[in-house]
Structure formats: C-alpha cells, structure tokens
Amino acid sequence: MPFIPHTPDQVRAMLAAIGVEDIDDLFDEIPPALRAGDLSTLPEALPEMTVARLMAARARADGQPLCFIGAGAYDHHVPAAVWQLLSRGELYSAYTPYQAEASQGTLQILYEFQSMMTALTALDVSNASLYDGASAVAEAILMAVRASRHGKVRRVLIPRGLHPRYRAVAQTIVSQQDIELVEVPFDPSGGHLTLAALEPLAAEPFAALVVPQPNFFGVLEEVDTLTDWAQAHGALVIAVVNPLALALLSPPGEWGSQGADIACGEAQPFGMPLASGGPYAGFLCCKQALMRQLPGRIAGRTLDLDGKPGYTLTLQAREQHIRRSRATSNICTNQGLLVTAATIHLALLGAEGLARTAAACHANTRRLVERLGETRGVTPRFHRPVFHEQALRLPAPAADVLRSLAAHNILGGFDLGADYPELDPAILVCATELRTNEDIDAFAAKLARVIATRSQARCPVEPKF
Amino acid sequence: MLIFEESRPGRRARAQAPLTSPDSADLPAHLRRQRPPALPEVGELQAVRHYTRLSQQNFSIDTHFYPLGSCTMKYNPRACHALASLPGFLGRHPLSPPSHSQGILACLFELQEILAAVTGMHAVSLAPAAGAQGEFAGVAMIRAYHRARGDLARREILVPDAAHGTNPATAAMCGFQVREIPTGPAGDLDLQALQAALGPQTAGIMLTNPSTIGVFERGIQAVADRVHQAGGLLYYDGANLNAILGKVRPGDMGFDVIHMNLHKTFATPHGGGGPGAGPVGVAARLAPFLPLPLVARDGPDYRWLEEADRPQSIGRLTAFGGNMGILLRAYIYARLVGREGMGRIAEYATLNANYLFTRLVAAGFEPAYGQRRASHEFILTLRREVRELGVTTMDVAKRLLDYGFHAPTTYFPLLVPECLLIEPTETETPEELDRFVAALTAIRAEAQTDPELVKSAPHSLPVRRLDDVRAAREPDLAWRPGRITDAAGPRGRSGKAED
Question: How are the residues of chain B apportioned to helix, strand and coil, as percentages rounded to the nearest 5?
C-alpha cells in the first residue's frame, strides 16, 4: 500500500483494540446512502518508476525553448544551494510555525526575509509573504481602503500600465467589497503615468494611487512626482515594484518627500524558477503607521524565559483564527518555502550581486532591443527609459511572428495586442542575465528572417526560393 | 545568530553573480538608488551552514510525528518533489504558447478530472493558491450565482460556531454578513437553530464534514435539504477531506461548491507555511462562475480557457493560474496512489485516529465526544488535568516537544475547553502511535509529581518558552544596521507600536 505502513497483523490488533470487526465498521456513523459509489474513472495506481517515465515524457514535451518572455515572470539564475537547502525535510515538510519553540528555523528565516525586504524597499515593516505579486496588489488595495478615513473612501486609482493580470486579480478580489478601481491611461508616446492623465480623476476622493516601478512595459515612472501628487490629495501610495530592480532604482520608502506608504510585488526573481507560474511569493511592506493593517503572517523577535532571543509569529490579533469575520484578511498558509528561497538567494547575492544581476538584465535588454531593431519596422513603442523589458512595434501581426519563432524553439516575447489593442501589433521582450550574446544574435537573425519571409509572402508574385 | 550578524563588508558568494557589472548609466539619475540596501555579505559556505543549522531547529514530518489536528501532516513522498522538479517543468515560462505547453496541460487536465471524480463534483478549477483562496473563490461563486439570478437580497452566510476562522473571515472578505449556528451536545449542527436562521437573506452555509470536532455530521442530508429549500447553497470546506477520500463524496452529500487542500489530502509539502493549493469543485449550476484559468481538451490538444471562454467567471486569483508546482506534486501523488489507494487513505487515517483515541481514553484521558466514533481526528479535553494538577493544555503541548512529538492543535475548536485536536494521518505506524500514548501518559505523571517541570517546558529545544506578549507589545519585526544584539535582547530601534 503506497505510503501506508501497516502490516496485516497490526491492522487486526488495532481493530481488536478499538472493538470492531473491520475497517469499514469505523464508518458506521455515515448514512449508507452517502457511501461513495463508482470510482472507476480514477486511474489505477502506478509504481514510482512508471510515473517517473510518464512525467519525464511530459516535461520533455514542453521543450526547453530560448525564452525572451518576461511579463511578470523572469528567467534568472537560481544558485544550486537554494533548492538543495529547500529540499531538506526540516524546511520542506514543516508546517506554519504554531509551536514557536519547535520552529525556530522557519521563524528566524521569516524574520530575516522581513529584514531583507524592508531594507530593499526602505519601509519599516514587512509581512512574511502573500500568494504572489498580483494577490499582493489586491491585499495592498484592501489595506489602503481600510486605512483611509475608516474605510469610507472606496475608490482607488490603478494605472492601465500595471500588469494586466495584476489588474484582473485585484478586480476579482476587491470587487467583492464594492471597491472601485479607476483605470488611469498611460501616455501614448512614453507609456508612463502623467499628472495630465491623473488630474481629471482627482475630482472625487480616492484612497490610494497604485504606482508600478517599472510598469508592465518595463517603462520607468516618475515616482517622486506621482507620490507627492497623490499624498497631496490625501491618498496613500501603493508601490508595485520588481524587487530586483530595487538594487538599482530608488526604493519606495524614499519616493517623493514622504515616501510611498505601501510597497508590494512579486519575489519570484529571488530564487524561484519559472515553473509555469508558481509557486512564487508576493511581498508586502508598509510604513510603521499601517502595521496593524497588514494582512498575513508576521514573525517577530522576542525573548524566552531565560532572556535569550527567539522568534515567534506575532500581531496575531489581525488574523482570521483570532478575529474571525473581523480579520484583516482570510489568508493563513501562504508561501513559506518560497520565502525561504528568497532569503537564501538574497543572502548569497548580497547587495553587490543583486546590483550586478540587475545591471546585466538592463544591459542585455538594451542590446536585445538594438539587435532586433536592425530589422526594418521593429522599433521601441515608447521613448521612456526602461529597466529590463521593452515594448516593440512590429511590421507584421504579432501572433504570426511569435508562432513562427516558437516553431524554431524561440519564445520571442509577449503579444501585447490582446490586452492593449491600441498597441497592436507589438510585443514585450526581456533578456535577463541568463541570455548570452549568442542567444540574442540567434533571436535577432530568426526575427529578421521571419519578417522578411512574411513581407515576401505578401508580394503579388509567389516568391521563389 | 542572524545572517546579518555573520556579514563582513566586501565578502560575497562570488560564484552567484555576473562577473562584471555592466554600465547602467543610462538610467536617469533621479530614479536611481542612492545607497545600497543593507543585505548581508556572506560567503557561500557560511550561507549554506547558516540555513542548514536553522533547518535543524525545526520539527517537521520528515523528523517528527506531527499530529497537528486539522492540518493532515502526512508524509510528503519524495517522488512528487523530484518529478515536479524536472528541468522541463521548472524552466517553463507561464506565458508559453500552446506548442510548448501540452505536457503540463495534460497533467493539469487529468488532475481536474481526478479531483472532480473523487469528490463527486461536476467541474474543478485548480486556480486557488491555498485553502483560504479556495474558500474565497467558493464564496465569491455563491455571490456571483445569486447575483446572476437577480437575487440581491442574499447577504448572509451561515457558519457553525466550531468552524475554522477562515470561514467567517472569507465570508466577510466577500462582503457577506456572518451568522453563527450552534453545535449540539453530540457534535452535530443544531438543526432547529439552523431552521430558524434560514430565510430569503441566506446566501449559503459553510460546513466542514467531518466537522472540526472530528465527527461526521450525521444530519448532513437534512442540512442540505433545508438550506436548498431556503434558496441557499452549501459550501464544503475541504480541510477534513482526508477523512472521507474515496469513501464519501461531497457532491453526493449535496454540496454545491467545495475546496480541497492539496497540501493536506494530496500530500504536497507544507513548506514551513505554504505553498498550498486549494482547487475548487462545483455542481453544474455554478460551473460558469469557476475561477480562471481552466484547462480544456480539444481532441488530442489541451488549451487554457480564459475570459473570452468564460465570461461569467469570478475571474483570476493569481497572475499565472495558481501554484503549478504544487498541482504537479498532487497529480504525481494521485497517480502513485491511484483508484485503489484513494479509499485506503481515508480508511487508514480513520483506523489510526480511532486506535489512538481508544488507547488514550483507556489511558484515562477525557474525550470531548466520547459517545461518537472518531473520524480522522479527535478531541481530548484536559480540563480535569488543568483543574486537578494546575498545568494548562499549553504546558502539556510544550512538554510534548521535549518528548520529540510536535504538539497537536491546541485550544481549537473554541467551544471545547482545554482541548487537544489530534490527527495522526494514515502514514504513521502503530508503533509511533503507541509511543505518543506513552509520552502523554508520562507527562501526566510528571504533572502529578513535578508540575513545575511541565509548566516550564520545553527544556530541550533551542529556546525555552517565548514571550508572546512582549513580541506583540514591542514589535521587533526586522533587523536594522547598527543594532547591537546581546543576551538580553536587542537594543536600539525596535519598531515600537504607534497605537
């Protein structure tokens, strides 16, 4: 029996101790009409070696293409030590540290993670993770609304240049509480947020302005101006940041004259493989004044009976198991193992390693854009500076181009047309530190050929090869 | 010692970053960071040793019996981790085109089918990233269902008083009022109180079955009939699905919407507090509202179903469709266990719980619901020990740690005083259960002869009992550069509360 260790003799002895004839008698309080019928559609049990063969074939089927897609999930180097440590059973198979004395490892790691995230964002407090970047934005919005004049202002400004999936998730979650998300258009030539776009929306009060840095197009926002503007209107500022970019870019806590109030985002760039989209980890930091509005687990440092420092989950009066329907959120289990990945990753890289990685991504993307731009009609869609992604206008339908590239095992970017019809045909490309000059050259050559082939195919005379 | 305290300026794990730092002077000066963040500077061996040593300060399933009630701490098969970590799975970008997605989509599609079949639901979405997000999705679907029918008066969700705190928190998060329904003396829901609470304002009821009390809700068919007659829907909290997997299906009990905790029932790791996965299953009438994305099969090919395919969906819950790596682990587990193994999970989880229950009651511990059959977990109340010996349930729980057992869930459910909620799971041997009985019996004897030993436990762990009050009153939530740490604790900035 897979993973069930009982011998037949033991089962007999246990049943005798309980005082029943067989195991089925243990279900005698369940009405017979409810007993499960036919389970024949379930697959039969397989030994590990057979499942291993099946999974190897499935993993192989998805190929290992050369990837130039970013769009919220980035292909970074993950040091071997990260997942070797994570695979230790003491980290992998422990639960939420309810018994603090028996969970000091996990608790100290959460505290170190919180320390690292507050250092990166230059804010006072961090929680111990949310599900992902998108759900972190949603929780940040709920938090800002709770904090704003006792929850009376239920209107939040959210830029169209924020990741479309983040906007979708925020909508799913905050619309349940009748919070209005007001979309702020981006500047058509810069791709960024402008005060000209914001001013007309400030006629009515708003609880918060969401400011991405960089935004979905990779474009850098004028964060100081935006922060000062929103705070002058009595609103909170929610920074949505790529934490890797913070190695080079001004941290939210230093934006404008007061600093952003809340910072959140996706910690995936820190030690988490692409893995089809998860598990990743959302992070959420804030100023001290908002600490008791933070959702999710928080680890704190305290003392034991002997006065020795130790760690425990704290500020639990915010949480669902204490406050029930008045909790800050329903979140409990979140992304502990991925927080551990991020913590070890950050410890291995340090500020200097992180800055080098961020600079390499920035330089690679700059080179990628130059090389792709050698093909006629391929040009940057926006003129503003970017971090490590760039929207490119294409001279041919984006879906067709990307499909042709994929047939050559190159994932050539994210098609912007579905989410931004006004930009079509355009793609969003990214080159992390893992993409070499040869990779970039291969992509550029293939793109040139794909586009040349398409323009020839549109000639009235059938081209001859 | 914190990793920060092992830091020395200029030390680095040099193998882990690019060799050079390319020029990024084109980034505008006013948007650049002025000072580097205060991250530790350590070598690779230091980091590996630091986190290895920290890991050794944890209890875990791999090292200890972990009978944490309601959490289903069963063995996490290594094959699930190894096979979900194949390079093809780890390297796949979430926005890969269909041509580079058929392998994983096949796994996800089959997992949807397996979960639907074993729970008796019409359709399943794998999108929720954890049990609480599954609950959110479920209650949001209940809201969407009533709204789609123009039935806007249904503003109330019913929740038993024994429910997990997530149930009322979720209902509130979805904008509902919460009304609690009392539990009767034998552990079943109070049907009269339920009847009195039902009305045109009832959106639905959230139930766990077996309940958090560790017994099967015998009146479930009557509960379902009455709630449905009142126009409400039934939500199944899958926290205790391990008790009935393959034996009873929530769909057959009349539930309209359920969530499952794959990190419990399908043996995916708990990871020190996540990641989990909380798929939702629904009856046919709720299928249009399922969260996105879903996986569909068109002939031999698989594809994502998105907003255009499902316009009535409650929407997305995470950016990229959920905790894929956890879903893969659950799929691998389901294939290893198979049709024959699913029912055995509930059988042996129940056998282990009833055996442990019987032995502990025979040893003189008081059951909270002694006249009832245990499900996969059961409750003892230590009220007699507390009264007669002056030790608390928390003291006993802490002393168990000294004996090498993780403590059961304590002080939950709230309606049983001084309780321990004990869930052994099917993967433990009877020898381990016997050792646990011996430990608990020994601790009671200690409480009689040397109560101080129990009250001041634990004695053999990296720290002694921690001061939770101090942690909450003087929150110290992050290390700061320049802080001096000594045996008496941190000095300098400790982040004082501003309330």
Answer: 40, 15, 45
